[in-house]
Amino acid sequence: MDAHTQIPPGTDIERRFEALSKRFPIVDTHNDFPYALRMQLHYELSSTPQFDFDSLLTSHTDLVRMREGRIGVQFFSCWIECKTDDILSQDFNQPSSIVRDTLEQIDVVRRLVDEHSGALRFVHTADEALACFQDQGSTQIAITLGVEGLHQVDLSLGVVRQYHALGVRYITLTHNCDNPFATAASSVTGGLSDRGLTVYGRECVREMNRLGMMVDLSHVSHKTMLDVLATTQAPVLFSHSSTYALTAHERNVRDDVLLLVKKNGGVVCINFFPEFLQQRGRARVTIDDAVAHIRHVVELIGWDHVGFGSDFDGIPQGPVGLEDVSKYPDLVKRVWAATGASEEQVAKMMGMNVLRVWKQCELVAARMRQTHGPVDSNWDQRRWVFHEYCKELPELFPGAFGLKQNEYTDTQTLVNGTAHDGSEDDAAHAKN
Ligand SMILES: [Zn+2]
Fold first, then answer.
1. Which catalytic reaction applies to this protein (predicted)?
2. pLDDT on residue 164
3. How far is the centre of ligand 1, averaged over its atoms, from the C-alpha of 395 (Å)?
4. Which of 161, 187, 366, 423 fits 192 for a cystine, CB–CB 3.0-4.6 Å?
Protein backbone atom coordinates (compact mmCIF):
# COMPACT_ATOMS: atom_id res chain seq x y z
CA MET A 1 0.00 0.00 0.00
CA ASP A 2 1.52 3.34 -1.05
CA ALA A 3 1.48 6.13 1.51
CA HIS A 4 -0.92 8.08 -0.69
CA THR A 5 -3.40 5.22 -0.88
CA GLN A 6 -6.41 5.69 1.34
CA ILE A 7 -8.13 2.70 2.90
CA PRO A 8 -11.23 2.60 0.66
CA PRO A 9 -14.52 3.57 2.30
CA GLY A 10 -16.76 0.59 2.86
CA THR A 11 -13.93 -1.77 3.74
CA ASP A 12 -14.09 -3.60 7.02
CA ILE A 13 -11.39 -1.49 8.70
CA GLU A 14 -13.07 1.72 7.56
CA ARG A 15 -16.43 0.67 9.03
CA ARG A 16 -14.88 -0.56 12.25
CA PHE A 17 -12.90 2.66 12.67
CA GLU A 18 -16.04 4.74 12.19
CA ALA A 19 -17.73 2.80 14.99
CA LEU A 20 -14.71 2.76 17.30
CA SER A 21 -13.94 6.46 16.91
CA LYS A 22 -17.41 7.30 18.20
CA ARG A 23 -16.65 5.45 21.43
CA PHE A 24 -13.00 6.31 22.08
CA PRO A 25 -11.06 9.54 21.61
CA ILE A 26 -7.85 10.07 19.71
CA VAL A 27 -5.40 11.69 22.13
CA ASP A 28 -2.34 13.65 20.99
CA THR A 29 0.19 14.45 23.72
CA HIS A 30 2.29 17.05 21.89
CA ASN A 31 1.29 19.89 19.59
CA ASP A 32 3.32 23.12 19.43
CA PHE A 33 0.57 25.38 18.07
CA PRO A 34 0.91 27.88 20.99
CA TYR A 35 4.46 28.59 19.82
CA ALA A 36 3.16 29.65 16.39
CA LEU A 37 0.86 32.11 18.18
CA ARG A 38 3.87 33.48 20.06
CA MET A 39 6.22 33.76 17.12
CA GLN A 40 3.85 34.87 14.38
CA LEU A 41 1.18 36.86 16.25
CA HIS A 42 2.85 37.90 19.52
CA TYR A 43 -0.36 36.45 21.01
CA GLU A 44 -2.49 39.24 19.47
CA LEU A 45 -5.23 36.88 18.37
CA SER A 46 -8.26 39.14 18.48
CA SER A 47 -6.60 42.06 16.71
CA THR A 48 -5.43 39.86 13.84
CA PRO A 49 -8.49 39.36 11.60
CA GLN A 50 -6.58 37.05 9.26
CA PHE A 51 -6.28 34.55 12.12
CA ASP A 52 -9.37 32.37 12.37
CA PHE A 53 -8.87 29.11 14.28
CA ASP A 54 -12.23 27.89 12.99
CA SER A 55 -11.15 28.00 9.35
CA LEU A 56 -8.35 26.31 7.43
CA LEU A 57 -4.95 27.68 8.41
CA THR A 58 -1.79 26.99 6.44
CA SER A 59 0.01 25.50 9.46
CA HIS A 60 -0.70 21.98 10.82
CA THR A 61 -3.48 22.70 13.30
CA ASP A 62 -6.96 24.27 13.21
CA LEU A 63 -10.44 23.34 14.39
CA VAL A 64 -11.60 22.17 10.98
CA ARG A 65 -8.83 19.60 10.68
CA MET A 66 -8.87 18.66 14.40
CA ARG A 67 -12.50 17.58 13.89
CA GLU A 68 -11.60 15.75 10.70
CA GLY A 69 -8.76 14.07 12.61
CA ARG A 70 -11.22 12.93 15.34
CA ILE A 71 -9.03 14.47 18.01
CA GLY A 72 -10.75 14.00 21.36
CA VAL A 73 -8.01 15.21 23.70
CA GLN A 74 -5.19 17.58 22.80
CA PHE A 75 -2.20 18.37 24.98
CA PHE A 76 -0.91 21.74 23.76
CA SER A 77 2.79 22.16 24.43
CA CYS A 78 4.01 25.31 26.18
CA TRP A 79 7.54 25.53 24.88
CA ILE A 80 10.19 28.21 25.34
CA GLU A 81 13.79 27.71 24.21
CA CYS A 82 16.72 27.13 26.53
CA LYS A 83 18.15 30.30 28.07
CA THR A 84 21.05 31.04 25.79
CA ASP A 85 22.15 30.01 22.33
CA ASP A 86 24.99 27.91 23.68
CA ILE A 87 22.90 24.94 24.70
CA LEU A 88 25.91 23.10 26.08
CA SER A 89 26.59 25.70 28.72
CA GLN A 90 23.69 27.40 30.48
CA ASP A 91 23.96 29.61 33.56
CA PHE A 92 20.83 28.97 35.56
CA ASN A 93 21.67 31.76 38.00
CA GLN A 94 21.22 34.37 35.27
CA PRO A 95 17.90 36.22 35.65
CA SER A 96 15.51 35.13 32.93
CA SER A 97 12.05 35.85 31.54
CA ILE A 98 11.30 32.19 30.94
CA VAL A 99 8.53 31.90 33.52
CA ARG A 100 6.79 34.95 32.04
CA ASP A 101 7.15 33.47 28.58
CA THR A 102 5.75 30.12 29.73
CA LEU A 103 2.83 31.83 31.49
CA GLU A 104 2.02 33.58 28.21
CA GLN A 105 1.91 30.20 26.47
CA ILE A 106 -0.51 28.91 29.10
CA ASP A 107 -2.55 32.10 28.84
CA VAL A 108 -2.90 31.95 25.07
CA VAL A 109 -4.25 28.39 25.21
CA ARG A 110 -6.76 29.38 27.88
CA ARG A 111 -7.85 32.33 25.71
CA LEU A 112 -8.12 30.11 22.64
CA VAL A 113 -10.37 27.73 24.59
CA ASP A 114 -12.47 30.60 25.96
CA GLU A 115 -12.91 32.13 22.52
CA HIS A 116 -13.99 28.76 21.09
CA SER A 117 -15.90 27.42 24.06
CA GLY A 118 -18.41 25.67 21.83
CA ALA A 119 -15.67 23.59 20.27
CA LEU A 120 -13.05 23.31 23.03
CA ARG A 121 -13.18 22.52 26.75
CA PHE A 122 -10.27 23.00 29.16
CA VAL A 123 -9.99 19.89 31.34
CA HIS A 124 -8.09 19.18 34.55
CA THR A 125 -8.29 15.41 35.00
CA ALA A 126 -8.21 12.25 32.90
CA ASP A 127 -11.85 11.59 33.80
CA GLU A 128 -12.86 15.08 32.67
CA ALA A 129 -11.03 14.52 29.39
CA LEU A 130 -12.82 11.26 28.70
CA ALA A 131 -16.17 12.67 29.84
CA CYS A 132 -15.72 15.61 27.48
CA PHE A 133 -15.51 13.12 24.62
CA GLN A 134 -18.20 10.75 25.82
CA ASP A 135 -20.76 13.28 27.11
CA GLN A 136 -24.04 12.79 25.29
CA GLY A 137 -24.18 15.21 22.38
CA SER A 138 -20.79 16.80 23.17
CA THR A 139 -18.60 17.67 20.22
CA GLN A 140 -16.06 19.56 22.30
CA ILE A 141 -12.39 18.69 22.13
CA ALA A 142 -10.72 18.38 25.54
CA ILE A 143 -7.69 20.65 25.91
CA THR A 144 -4.89 20.35 28.44
CA LEU A 145 -1.25 21.44 28.71
CA GLY A 146 2.34 20.24 28.86
CA VAL A 147 5.48 22.30 29.57
CA GLU A 148 8.46 21.29 27.46
CA GLY A 149 11.42 21.38 29.79
CA LEU A 150 12.30 21.97 33.45
CA HIS A 151 14.43 24.93 32.33
CA GLN A 152 11.00 26.60 32.11
CA VAL A 153 10.50 26.34 35.89
CA ASP A 154 13.69 28.36 36.30
CA LEU A 155 15.11 26.30 39.19
CA SER A 156 12.04 26.35 41.34
CA LEU A 157 9.79 23.56 42.59
CA GLY A 158 7.39 26.35 43.57
CA VAL A 159 6.98 27.07 39.87
CA VAL A 160 6.32 23.36 39.19
CA ARG A 161 3.49 23.50 41.73
CA GLN A 162 2.04 26.69 40.26
CA TYR A 163 2.14 25.31 36.70
CA HIS A 164 0.15 22.36 38.01
CA ALA A 165 -2.33 24.73 39.63
CA LEU A 166 -2.73 26.45 36.23
CA GLY A 167 -3.62 23.18 34.52
CA VAL A 168 -0.28 21.87 33.25
CA ARG A 169 -0.39 18.07 33.39
CA TYR A 170 3.08 17.06 32.24
CA ILE A 171 6.53 18.58 32.25
CA THR A 172 9.31 17.27 30.03
CA LEU A 173 12.39 16.96 32.23
CA THR A 174 14.67 18.63 29.68
CA HIS A 175 14.48 20.28 26.30
CA ASN A 176 17.69 20.55 24.24
CA CYS A 177 19.89 21.63 27.16
CA ASP A 178 20.91 20.24 30.52
CA ASN A 179 19.29 21.91 33.49
CA PRO A 180 19.75 21.58 37.28
CA PHE A 181 17.43 18.57 37.23
CA ALA A 182 18.58 16.30 34.40
CA THR A 183 20.75 15.62 31.34
CA ALA A 184 19.35 16.12 27.84
CA ALA A 185 19.83 13.74 24.90
CA SER A 186 21.16 16.61 22.78
CA SER A 187 23.91 17.36 25.32
CA VAL A 188 25.16 13.80 25.00
CA THR A 189 25.09 14.16 21.21
CA GLY A 190 26.99 17.42 21.68
CA GLY A 191 29.78 15.65 23.57
CA LEU A 192 28.87 16.22 27.23
CA SER A 193 28.80 13.27 29.62
CA ASP A 194 25.51 11.66 30.52
CA ARG A 195 25.00 12.50 34.18
CA GLY A 196 21.38 11.39 34.16
CA LEU A 197 19.05 12.70 36.84
CA THR A 198 20.60 14.95 39.51
CA VAL A 199 19.85 14.80 43.23
CA TYR A 200 17.62 17.85 42.79
CA GLY A 201 16.03 16.18 39.77
CA ARG A 202 15.14 13.21 41.96
CA GLU A 203 13.39 15.54 44.38
CA CYS A 204 11.56 17.15 41.48
CA VAL A 205 10.32 13.78 40.22
CA ARG A 206 9.02 13.04 43.71
CA GLU A 207 7.23 16.40 43.78
CA MET A 208 5.76 15.79 40.32
CA ASN A 209 4.55 12.36 41.50
CA ARG A 210 2.99 14.02 44.56
CA LEU A 211 1.24 16.61 42.41
CA GLY A 212 0.02 14.21 39.74
CA MET A 213 2.16 16.00 37.15
CA MET A 214 3.16 13.41 34.55
CA VAL A 215 6.93 12.99 34.17
CA ASP A 216 7.71 13.31 30.45
CA LEU A 217 10.93 11.68 29.22
CA SER A 218 11.00 12.93 25.62
CA HIS A 219 14.24 14.85 24.92
CA VAL A 220 16.12 13.43 27.94
CA SER A 221 19.31 11.36 27.82
CA HIS A 222 19.39 7.58 28.05
CA LYS A 223 20.70 7.66 31.63
CA THR A 224 18.04 10.18 32.64
CA MET A 225 15.40 7.77 31.32
CA LEU A 226 16.92 4.90 33.33
CA ASP A 227 17.33 7.01 36.48
CA VAL A 228 13.73 8.24 36.34
CA LEU A 229 12.37 4.76 35.73
CA ALA A 230 14.26 3.62 38.85
CA THR A 231 12.91 6.55 40.88
CA THR A 232 9.37 7.43 39.86
CA GLN A 233 6.40 6.11 41.79
CA ALA A 234 4.03 6.72 38.88
CA PRO A 235 3.94 5.66 35.22
CA VAL A 236 6.00 7.82 32.87
CA LEU A 237 5.06 9.52 29.63
CA PHE A 238 7.11 10.00 26.49
CA SER A 239 5.05 12.83 25.02
CA HIS A 240 6.74 12.78 21.57
CA SER A 241 9.39 10.11 21.00
CA SER A 242 10.02 7.35 18.49
CA THR A 243 12.05 4.16 18.74
CA TYR A 244 15.84 3.96 18.65
CA ALA A 245 15.84 0.46 17.17
CA LEU A 246 14.38 1.81 13.91
CA THR A 247 15.92 5.31 13.96
CA ALA A 248 19.15 5.59 15.93
CA HIS A 249 18.61 9.14 17.19
CA GLU A 250 19.85 9.83 20.72
CA ARG A 251 16.48 11.12 21.85
CA ASN A 252 14.52 8.09 20.60
CA VAL A 253 13.66 5.31 23.05
CA ARG A 254 16.01 2.31 23.19
CA ASP A 255 14.69 -1.21 23.64
CA ASP A 256 16.11 -1.56 27.19
CA VAL A 257 14.10 1.52 28.16
CA LEU A 258 10.97 0.22 26.40
CA LEU A 259 11.17 -2.97 28.48
CA LEU A 260 11.34 -0.84 31.64
CA VAL A 261 8.40 1.26 30.44
CA LYS A 262 6.39 -1.96 30.24
CA LYS A 263 7.22 -2.73 33.89
CA ASN A 264 6.53 0.88 34.87
CA GLY A 265 3.14 0.96 33.09
CA GLY A 266 4.06 4.06 31.09
CA VAL A 267 3.32 5.10 27.52
CA VAL A 268 5.46 6.12 24.53
CA CYS A 269 3.65 8.49 22.18
CA ILE A 270 5.17 8.24 18.72
CA ASN A 271 6.59 11.48 17.30
CA PHE A 272 5.82 12.29 13.65
CA PHE A 273 8.97 14.39 13.09
CA PRO A 274 10.46 12.77 9.94
CA GLU A 275 13.99 13.00 11.39
CA PHE A 276 12.99 10.71 14.27
CA LEU A 277 11.13 8.23 12.03
CA GLN A 278 13.50 7.85 9.10
CA GLN A 279 14.70 4.28 8.69
CA ARG A 280 18.07 3.38 7.26
CA GLY A 281 18.23 3.28 3.49
CA ARG A 282 14.92 5.04 2.94
CA ALA A 283 14.91 8.26 0.96
CA ARG A 284 11.64 9.74 2.20
CA VAL A 285 9.61 9.38 5.34
CA THR A 286 5.95 8.39 5.07
CA ILE A 287 3.04 7.46 7.30
CA ASP A 288 4.25 3.86 7.03
CA ASP A 289 7.41 4.74 8.97
CA ALA A 290 5.16 5.89 11.83
CA VAL A 291 3.29 2.59 11.50
CA ALA A 292 6.63 0.73 11.72
CA HIS A 293 7.64 2.56 14.93
CA ILE A 294 4.26 1.82 16.51
CA ARG A 295 4.57 -1.83 15.52
CA HIS A 296 8.04 -2.01 17.05
CA VAL A 297 6.71 -0.82 20.41
CA VAL A 298 3.77 -3.22 20.20
CA GLU A 299 5.89 -6.22 19.22
CA LEU A 300 8.38 -5.58 22.03
CA ILE A 301 6.14 -4.55 24.93
CA GLY A 302 2.51 -4.89 23.82
CA TRP A 303 -0.46 -2.62 23.10
CA ASP A 304 -0.65 -0.99 26.56
CA HIS A 305 2.26 1.37 26.04
CA VAL A 306 1.85 3.21 22.75
CA GLY A 307 0.15 6.44 21.71
CA PHE A 308 0.48 9.51 19.47
CA GLY A 309 2.56 12.65 20.17
CA SER A 310 2.62 14.34 16.80
CA ASP A 311 4.87 17.40 17.34
CA PHE A 312 2.68 19.16 14.75
CA ASP A 313 3.51 22.85 14.36
CA GLY A 314 6.82 22.14 16.07
CA ILE A 315 8.15 20.46 12.92
CA PRO A 316 8.57 21.93 9.44
CA GLN A 317 6.47 19.18 7.86
CA GLY A 318 5.04 15.80 8.70
CA PRO A 319 5.73 12.54 6.86
CA VAL A 320 4.00 11.91 3.52
CA GLY A 321 0.45 10.86 4.38
CA LEU A 322 0.70 12.32 7.89
CA GLU A 323 0.91 16.01 7.10
CA ASP A 324 -1.41 17.59 9.67
CA VAL A 325 -3.94 16.97 12.46
CA SER A 326 -6.56 15.66 10.03
CA LYS A 327 -4.52 12.52 9.37
CA TYR A 328 -4.75 10.52 12.63
CA PRO A 329 -7.59 8.31 11.30
CA ASP A 330 -5.38 7.25 8.38
CA LEU A 331 -2.65 6.24 10.83
CA VAL A 332 -5.05 4.30 13.05
CA LYS A 333 -6.52 2.45 10.06
CA ARG A 334 -3.12 1.59 8.60
CA VAL A 335 -1.86 0.21 11.92
CA TRP A 336 -5.10 -1.73 12.27
CA ALA A 337 -4.86 -3.17 8.75
CA ALA A 338 -1.19 -4.07 9.24
CA THR A 339 -1.59 -5.79 12.61
CA GLY A 340 -5.09 -7.21 12.79
CA ALA A 341 -5.34 -5.83 16.34
CA SER A 342 -8.49 -6.11 18.45
CA GLU A 343 -10.77 -3.09 18.91
CA GLU A 344 -9.62 -2.84 22.51
CA GLN A 345 -5.98 -2.70 21.43
CA VAL A 346 -6.66 -0.05 18.82
CA ALA A 347 -8.61 2.06 21.33
CA LYS A 348 -5.64 1.90 23.71
CA MET A 349 -3.28 3.16 21.01
CA MET A 350 -5.70 5.90 19.95
CA GLY A 351 -5.63 7.41 23.42
CA MET A 352 -6.85 5.16 26.21
CA ASN A 353 -3.27 4.32 27.21
CA VAL A 354 -2.48 7.99 27.76
CA LEU A 355 -5.67 8.51 29.74
CA ARG A 356 -4.82 5.45 31.87
CA VAL A 357 -1.33 6.80 32.63
CA TRP A 358 -2.76 10.24 33.45
CA LYS A 359 -5.34 8.67 35.77
CA GLN A 360 -2.73 6.49 37.49
CA CYS A 361 -0.57 9.56 38.12
CA GLU A 362 -3.57 11.18 39.78
CA LEU A 363 -4.11 8.13 42.00
CA VAL A 364 -0.43 8.01 43.01
CA ALA A 365 -0.62 11.73 43.83
CA ALA A 366 -3.73 11.28 45.98
CA ARG A 367 -1.98 8.53 47.92
CA MET A 368 1.29 10.47 48.36
CA ARG A 369 -0.46 13.62 49.50
CA GLN A 370 -1.85 11.76 52.50
CA THR A 371 1.64 11.34 53.88
CA HIS A 372 3.85 13.88 52.06
CA GLY A 373 3.79 17.68 52.07
CA PRO A 374 5.39 19.75 49.31
CA VAL A 375 9.10 19.18 48.66
CA ASP A 376 10.59 22.52 49.75
CA SER A 377 14.24 22.08 48.88
CA ASN A 378 16.18 24.30 46.49
CA TRP A 379 18.92 23.75 43.96
CA ASP A 380 22.14 23.73 45.99
CA GLN A 381 23.93 26.01 43.48
CA ARG A 382 21.26 28.70 43.45
CA ARG A 383 22.56 32.17 44.28
CA TRP A 384 20.41 34.20 46.67
CA VAL A 385 21.25 37.87 46.15
CA PHE A 386 19.87 40.76 48.22
CA HIS A 387 20.52 44.43 48.82
CA GLU A 388 22.48 45.33 51.96
CA TYR A 389 19.47 47.21 53.37
CA CYS A 390 17.53 43.94 53.70
CA LYS A 391 19.69 43.17 56.72
CA GLU A 392 17.83 45.97 58.52
CA LEU A 393 14.50 44.16 58.12
CA PRO A 394 13.18 42.32 61.18
CA GLU A 395 14.61 38.90 61.92
CA LEU A 396 12.12 36.01 62.15
CA PHE A 397 13.73 34.65 65.29
CA PRO A 398 17.15 35.07 66.87
CA GLY A 399 19.75 33.65 64.53
CA ALA A 400 17.49 33.42 61.46
CA PHE A 401 19.70 35.77 59.42
CA GLY A 402 22.60 33.37 59.87
CA LEU A 403 20.81 30.24 58.67
CA LYS A 404 21.20 30.59 54.91
CA GLN A 405 24.05 31.72 52.69
CA ASN A 406 23.13 35.00 51.00
CA GLU A 407 25.06 37.45 48.86
CA TYR A 408 24.66 41.20 49.45
CA THR A 409 25.30 43.53 46.57
CA ASP A 410 25.36 47.18 47.72
CA THR A 411 25.08 49.55 50.62
CA GLN A 412 21.56 50.83 50.02
CA THR A 413 19.38 51.49 53.05
CA LEU A 414 15.65 51.22 53.43
CA VAL A 415 13.86 54.56 53.86
CA ASN A 416 10.08 54.95 53.55
CA GLY A 417 9.88 51.52 51.93
CA THR A 418 12.14 52.42 49.03
CA ALA A 419 15.81 51.91 48.44
CA HIS A 420 18.01 55.00 48.87
CA ASP A 421 21.71 55.56 48.87
CA GLY A 422 21.82 56.90 52.45
CA SER A 423 22.71 60.50 51.52
CA GLU A 424 21.55 63.52 53.57
CA ASP A 425 18.84 64.21 50.99
CA ASP A 426 17.33 60.89 51.92
CA ALA A 427 17.45 61.70 55.61
CA ALA A 428 15.53 64.92 54.95
CA HIS A 429 13.07 63.01 52.82
CA ALA A 430 12.47 60.47 55.54
CA LYS A 431 11.13 63.15 57.91
CA ASN A 432 8.23 64.01 55.58
ZN1 LIG B 1 10.13 18.54 21.47
1. an L-aminoacyl-L-amino acid + H2O = 2 an L-alpha-amino acid
2. 98
3. 46
4. 187
